[in-house]
Amino acid sequence: MGLESGSPRILEAMGKKITPARTREAVSALAQAGIKTTSYWVIGYPGETEEDFQQTLDLVEEMKDDLYEADCNPFAYFLTGPGGIGPVGEKNRSRLLYPPETRDMLMLQTWILDTPPPGKRLMTG
Q: What's the CA gap between 110 and 95, in Å, rounded?
């Protein structure tokens, strides 16, 4: 389940249309039905504060007995969509965070955008 965050503010910014209370209800119902739930969380969403992050940690802690697995991942923005659907690079106003010679040491590539994502208004903390 892509639960993403325990912060109502961040969930709203992501357009998730769910609340932490509904998340608790859903995960609890699945656990009571005997369904092992893997949850996916995003850490470092643009505008996320320490308070937002703590709300996520608190929610995971509250649900620990009902969750089978919690998979936390740093926020990654893909200019043309996830999964390498299209090109990312200089022509899209982005650059590699780490120099190319470090590619063999990294599990993934991290890009820095020179502009905010199109069509999205980033929240500031």
A: 9
